[in-house]
Amino acid sequence: MAIGNEQVAERVLLRPLYEDDYFPDHLLDKGRAILLRLCERIETERPADLAALYALTRGATEEFNLLEAEFEAAGSEFETVAREEIGEEFWFIATAYGFADADAEELIAARDW
């Protein structure tokens, strides 16, 4: 499914992390795919309120929890810069889909990182 939201479609998700050799591109690609799947779910399911949005972001956050082990195995990790960037991407996605009042921490509340 192609992303219909122009803001999201034009953005290079996780760009700052791709610019840092500490983060393996093939694993960032997996993280980007998680974010794009989240966008697809938002476009398909059209959450009516923040509770419904948070349910979708919870699933994506749990996928990032699993991905963190792959980063660690590759000699990387979700350190401060990565955690902030991932969180910012969740917030960007929420606002791009009309949820400007979303709580940035609640979007990623299920995180282990």
Largest sheet: none
Q: What's the number of structural domains?
A: 1
Q: Give the SSE order as H and E letters.
A: HHHHHH
Beta-strand residue percentage: under 5%
What's the average pLDDT?
97
Estimated helix fraction: 55-70%
Assembly level: single chain
List segments where confidence is low: pLDDT < 50 over at least 5 consecutive residues.
none
Class by alpha and beta content: mainly alpha
Overall geometric form:
globular
Number of strands: 0
Cα distance spanning the termini:
29 Å
Rg over alpha carbons: 13 Å
How many helical elements?
6
Plain-language structure description:
The protein has 113 residues and is an all-alpha fold. The protein has one domain. Helix content is 66%, strand content 0%. The chain is built from six helices and no strands. The longest helix is centred in the middle third of the chain and has 24 residues, at 50-73. The radius of gyration is 13 Å and the shape is globular. The model has no long low-confidence stretch (mean pLDDT 97).
Brief rundown of the structure:
The chain has about 110 residues and is mainly α. It has helices at about 5-10, 15-20, 25-45, 50-75, 80-95, 105.
